UniProtKB/TrEMBL annotation:
Record family assignment: Belongs to the RNase T2 family.
InterPro entries per record: Ribonuclease_T2_eukaryotic, RNase_T2-like, RNase_T2-like_sf, RNase_T2_His_AS_1, RNase_T2_His_AS_2
Keywords: Disulfide bond, Endonuclease, Hydrolase, Lyase, Nuclease, Signal
Name of the protein described by the UniProt record: Uncharacterized protein
Active site: 78, 136, 140
Length: 278
């Protein structure tokens, strides 16, 4: 409890320091690398369950969160995504390249809670390849105006929501613990989140295990339901959640010594499939 409070206090301090330093005010760039995209309707905070993703890690590297000696046992951040109510989303909205310098004060917090779970670099909108954070900022962050104006605010907003709505804690308070093999009714997982968060989540699975859990927010950053129907017809059966699901753990020791890189991650990662909300 004391630990938790201390961590929260430290985070509040970081945000305060940034605000005081005026780092949040970055001049607006000329918009539009491609055709104009209309303003988004709501946000989706996408969280990943490392136990499921890291189970398929074959090779390791320093930048891969799966390769830490201590296994990740909480949901980590994938990204904050602006979405449309019709099931589609804007992407790559402004010619604003990711700059690590702009978020240096957040580096430690991002490393801890927003790690890449792969070794390969990610595709970016304007510079080709880059770190996981560059992909998220360029593809999604640049479409988050007018709520989010710049890179620093994008990462700060996502971290704030992540700290405020701790899904791992919501689940364990509702009796849903991480444990290898134990099955939980999908409806119980959904109801637990609904009750604690105040909106229906979207859950994405991989072979019966939770891969992602997504929380939705209106533009005032208040909880709302995620979409419950598919309107654009993109369905990926692979990501569909069965009636009973697991939140597996993984063994990092298996991964400790290898160094080669693996697989690209974003090919079919963000398909709005398996919209599991009750
Ligand atoms: C969320 O809750 C879990 C379980 O109580 C805890 O281990 C974790 O540190 C919390 N995460 C954050 C970001 O506070
Ligand atoms: C992995 O590395 C450790 C420490 O360098 C070493 O002791 C161990 O034998 C290695 N394991 C394998 C399977 O190579």
């Amino acid at each position: 409890m004391a630990m938790k409070t201390a961590r929260k206090a430290a985070w509040v301090l970081v945000v305060w320091a940034l605000a005081a330093a005026g780092l949040g005010s970055v001049s607006a760039r000329a918009p539009l690398g491609r055709e104009a995209q209309r303003e988004f309707d709501y946000f989706k905070l996408s969280l990943q369950w490392p136990g499921t993703i890291c189970a398929s890690t074959r090779y390791c590297c320093a930048s891969n969160g799966c390769c830490r000696s201590e296994p990740l046992q909480t949901f980590t951040i994938h990204g904050l995504w602006p979405d449309y109510d019709d099931g589609t989303w804007p992407a790559c909205c402004r010619r604003t390249q990711f700059e690590m310098d702009k978020i240096l004060p957040l580096k430690e917090t991002l490393d801890k809670y927003w790690p890449s779970l792969f070794c390969s670099s990610s595709s970016t909108c304007f510079s080709g390849k880059g770190p996981f954070w560059a992909h998220e900022w360029e593809k999604h962050g640049t479409c988050s105006a007018p709520v989010v104006q710049d890179e620093l605010q994008y990462f700060t907003t996502a971290l704030d929501l992540y700290f405020k709505y701790n899904v791992t804690e919501m689940l364990s308070s509702g009796g849903i613990q991480i444990s290898n093999g134990k099955e939980y009714a999908l409806s119980d997982v959904i109801d637990t989140i609904k009750h604690a968060f105040g909106g229906s989540p979207q859950i994405v699975c991989k072979r019966g295990s939770v891969e992602e859990l997504r929380l939705c927010f209106d533009k005032e950053l208040k909880p709302r339901d995620c979409l419950t129907t598919l309107t654009n017809g993109i369905v990926s059966r692979r990501k569909h959640c069965p009636q009973y699901i697991t939140l597996p753990t993984y063994d990092p020791l298996v991964l400790a010594n290898s160094t080669r890189e693996i697989m690209t991650q974003f090919n079919d990662f963000e398909v709005p499939a398996a919209l599991y909300t009750s």
